[in-house]
Amino acid sequence: MSMDLGQFHEVFFEESQEHLDALEQGLMALDPSQPDAELLNTIFRAAHSIKGSSGVFGFTALGDITHVMENRLDEWRKEISQPQASQVDHLLTVVDALRHLVSVYQNGEPVDEQWVQDTIDGLNAKFDAYEIKNSEQSQSSEPVVDEDDDEGFGFFEPLEAEAEADDDVGYGFFEEEPAPDEDEGFGFFEEPEPEAEFAAANTEAEDEGWGLFEEPGSSDTSPPQVDAVESKPTETKAPAKSAVSNPTTESAQAAQKSGGTIRVNVEKVDSLINLVGELVITQSMLAMVGQNLDDANQEKMNGVIETLHRNTREIQESVMSIRMLPISFVFNRFPRVARDTAGKLGKKVNLVIEGGDTEIDKGLVEQLADPLTHLMRNSIDHGIESPSDRLQAGKPETGTVRLSARQQGGNIIISVIDDGAGLNRDKILNKARERGMTVNADSPDEAIWPLIFEPGFSTADAVTDVSGRGVGMDVVKKNLSNLGGRIDIDSVPGYGTTLSLILPLTLAILDGMAVSLGSETYIIPLGNIVESIQPNAEQVKTLNGDELLNVRGHYWPVVRLHRVMSVRPRFERITDGIVILTESGKRRFGILVDELLGQQQVVIKSLEQHYKRIPGVGGATVMGDGQVAFILDLESLGADVAATATLEDAS
Amino acid sequence: MTDEHDVDSQQEFLTFLLGDEQYGIDIMSVKEIRGYDNVTRIANAPAFIKGVINMRGEIVPIVDLRIKFQQKQPTYDEFTIVIVVQVHDRLVGMVVDGVSDVVGFTPEEIRPSPDFGTAFDSRYLSGLGSKDKDMVILVNIEALVTSQELGLIDQNRSTYS
């Protein structure tokens, strides 16, 4: 049996993650002062689902914590108690604890029972503490209530409810609603039994010896109570749904959800993409063969090949789209990041998310999370001012951070926009000088802002535990360029900063320029190419033995690709070949090749899967004739180039 | 060829020729046997690493065992044979002088490998199989492919990928 369950574990872990995400998002969206009943139900269901399935698999610790969580959520759901912001915060930390626990189970590590108990105790304490406070408050606000009457109050009322079926207070007892002065009665419902509906209420009442209940006979009292349950929803706004209707909505929604998608292993998708890539190559080889027919069938052949071409292209596009995910997969974590960061810093921030349905390659989605988290924290820490500063500056107390994604041609542009103080030009310049960099005070903003990407560069006055240590922006930039993306900064003092990440739509396809070198072909990423020139003799200058190319006043170092790749080229001299001017990170250099073969989209293949990294090469691709061509890695190619392209040159 | 009853206990090897010596590799590690064409040279790689090929979308390195272990300058034509082997998830193509046969050996027919007299270092050998008049040097393909000597794998690879 246990052997059979094993294969479902992975599904369970995945689903748990989804439920935890739902739980977190629900809690984030919850407005404690006006809890939305449907939202509470969603949150409750998420906790309930985790509890249910963890029980099946014997992940008891997970079940224990979610069980308590579920009970507490049920109190909110049934309006026994009112959610408090601090409780929501605490529940979020419990969600984190659950995530941790899921990974513990996933890795097959032992569970720290004490930690589990502490988590449960902490959760209970948080809720109990408030309830005591709550009842104390309400007690003091009640004029004169006898202690004894107080206890019995809730139970007494149902008797009278016989006459008034829709009596609120009477209802309250059975639906476990917190009548404010229902001191003892309330505590009694804290028993961790979320499903404790009528039956439990009855038996508990009997256990406690509330003889009052017995006397009238349950057959007499029940009908009006049921009525009360049914009629209650019409009386209050956003009522908790009756217990009976819940399971149906739950299962209906679950069915709806599972009907739309299937889970597929990424490896299967990738191998499909690979095979389609092969199909495209075969198709183009077939096209080449087909061109050399010399009889009447030529035209027919061309037609068929044209159809094949169209079909393979469509297959390729739709297969690629399987890998695409809406970017909301990354964005969804940011309300939490913003909330936590702002909370820590005592700032008020409103996060606006736009374009969450923009689709992006799955591989990118996973690698975007960290850089974006960093930028988001930076925006809140360095960008958004403290509430008092904002008021002084005539801005609303609450800052706005806008996280938006949109597609532009073959790129995805993700922007983090804050309406904070903007970058401080003088501070950046001073910091740069402090660090011994040569900077020009007259440089335009566009030349100044990128300095914040220098390693160890931070202009924050104080190092906080959120940011300001000066590690990070350089890493963000590096990570992005590894993904084939870049980052733009736009900042206006007093009005805020916009950081835009420009990324390729997919990691798997690259727009490239094919170049020839001797008998070999290489691909240069098109995004890095500034222009291609055939230099004349006057443009070539020599500095310390290194040849530089003067292009309209800028000096470009030249990398002779044939030397890097040890090939015998057709042209040794710069003036005979073609120099492709490229820009990668802050390095700008030219690459000497024999000839441009043309621009084409190439499918990027990993070299490291079966071999190892090759210096100067970022990946490989398969050309139309089935031959492998290497894609140049400009970062590593340019590493040897003296950093001639310093700030003065760039400006 | 073989008796019914010892089929279970015997291991099958694909045998190939390097010069005059007959070698065998576990048939289960052989992915395919193909001709030698469309090899893209890798800059600054050792001479025995001929380059990479595209094998149904996978970029597979090609090692010429003739150069590596025979120290000779081989020729490449339409009869040149590449055995593509799979070790764990990695594919490697090996150029050899020729593929001869598939031979099954029972454990009794496999003796410890000799310490000398073969082109291969004994580290990469798993034994010596003999049946009738055949003598096959059995190669431990995993040890060979993952060896530092071939340098097919970044030694620090596991730390980041």
Automatic annotation (TrEMBL), chain A:
Asked if the Swiss-Prot or TrEMBL record annotates the protein with the keyword Transferase, the reply is: yes
Histidine kinase domain boundaries: 274-507
Query: In what residue span(s) does the HPt domain sit?
Result: 1-105
CDD domains per the UniProt record, alphabetical: CheA_reg, HATPase_CheA-like, HPT
Asked whether the UniProt record includes Phosphoprotein among its keywords, one would answer yes
**Molecular-function annotations in GO:** ATP binding; phosphorelay sensor kinase activity
Q: Name one GO cellular component term.
A: cytoplasm
Q: Which GO terms describe its biological process?
A: chemotaxis
Q: Which InterPro entries match?
A: Bact_Chemotaxis_CheA, CheA-like_dim, CheA-like_homodim_sf, CheW-like_dom_sf, CheW-lke_dom, HATPase_C_sf, HATPase_dom, His_kinase_dom
Annotated segments matching region Disordered: 133-152, 195-259
**EC numbers on record:** 2.7.13.3
- Reactions that this protein is recorded to catalyse: ATP + protein L-histidine = ADP + protein N-phospho-L-histidine
Q: Which residues carry this modification: Phosphohistidine?
A: 48
Biased-composition ranges, Polar residues, are: 243-259
UniProt keyword annotations, A-Z: ATP-binding, Chemotaxis, Kinase, Nucleotide-binding, Phosphoprotein, Transferase, Two-component regulatory system
* Positions of the CheW-like domain: 509-643
Task: Explain the purpose of this protein.
Answer: Involved in the transmission of sensory signals from the chemoreceptors to the flagellar motors. CheA is autophosphorylated; it can transfer its phosphate group to either CheB or CheY.
Descriptive protein name: Chemotaxis protein CheA
Traced from the root, the source organism's taxonomic lineage reads: Bacteria, Pseudomonadati, Pseudomonadota, Gammaproteobacteria, Oceanospirillales
Automatic annotation (TrEMBL), chain B:
Do you know which Gene3D superfamilies this protein is assigned to? CheA-289, Domain 4 (2.40.50.180), SH3 Domains (2.30.30.40)
Q: Where is the CheW-like domain?
A: 10-150
Question: Do you know which PANTHER family this protein is assigned to?
Answer: CHEMOTAXIS PROTEIN CHEW, CHEMOTAXIS SENSOR HISTIDINE KINASE-RELATED
Q: Which InterPro entries match?
A: CheW, CheW-like_dom_sf, CheW-lke_dom
Q: Which Pfam families match?
A: CheW
Q: Name one GO biological process term.
A: signal transduction
Alphabetically sorted, this entry's keywords are: Chemotaxis, Cytoplasm
Which compartment or compartments is the protein found in? Cytoplasm
Task: Extract the PROSITE patterns matched here.
Answer: CHEW
**What's this protein's name?**
Chemotaxis protein CheW
Q: Name one GO cellular component term.
A: cytosol
Q: Which residues form a coiled coil?
A: none
